[in-house]
């Protein structure tokens, strides 16, 4: 395998994306200024792919960090691949572009490189991210995701989003989009939880068959400080088998976990606000795992999810109820 080929992944719309991205979601206790500083450090290290969302409430800080690195000559806007996501209270077709424009205003950008449907369960439109009734129950909305997708296609046609895709979709939901009448653009990617303990092999195989990139969030496990994370799950980076493979290569467990994804054709998001780990996590392009390593690491799959938001679980489109 040519190591340099891993520096760019071709999308089905003819554009490309860097295969290693910098994730920016953080527990509410993390100051937004910390995210801003981390993005600036990541750019200095060499990251050019940044993943965020309207729902993360940090796009203003991320935009400011990127603008400052543009201003000091480190990068140009066209060097940056930026992903945002439409939140579930904006899935009505007439609201999709509105949400994108809200993100663009916060960022100070004229376009995003990739725009995703964040989650396939619509909630009642309004100012609250998680609207609830007087009994504390989440208020769902009725939206046809195919109509939402048509609004996403219009965002691409308008130039506000260079590419469009989805996140947290299962195979059935992807097939619904792919088989819709008058489909203009296929999703270029499906961003899902994917790591050694939940390797998504069947979904990856399906996505590859449809020329859709699978992007992995939670590739290093997860931050147990997040309220929606399964607190009983084992800590991925402490896995003894992973650590043994890392030791053989003289690498960190995180580097091996990321490299595993890259070699199987998955775009990986690495997230850390620690300067040393930001640097280490980027050093994954100068070594290669053997076929035996890949087989060993694949065998670690336990179908364990770190992320499970039970708020959505009663909705018929909740994607984790209907998986291969």
From TrEMBL:
Annotated catalytic residues: 56 (proton donor)
Site feature: Lowers pKa of active site Tyr: 85
Residues annotated as binding substrate: 118
Gene Ontology terms for molecular function: oxidoreductase activity
Domain named NADP-dependent oxidoreductase: residues: 19-301
Keyword match Oxidoreductase: yes
This protein's UniProt keywords: NADP, Oxidoreductase
Listed SUPFAM superfamilies: NAD(P)-linked oxidoreductase
Keyword NADP assigned: yes
InterPro entries xrefs: AKR, AKR1C, Aldo/ket_reductase_CS, NAD(P)_OxRdtase_dom_sf, NADP_OxRdtase_dom
Gene3D superfamilies (alphabetical): NADP-dependent oxidoreductase domain
Family membership: Belongs to the aldo/keto reductase family.
Protein name (Swiss-Prot/TrEMBL): Aldo-keto reductase family 1, member C3 (3-alpha hydroxysteroid dehydrogenase, type II)
Naturally occurring in which organism (per UniProt): Canis lupus familiaris
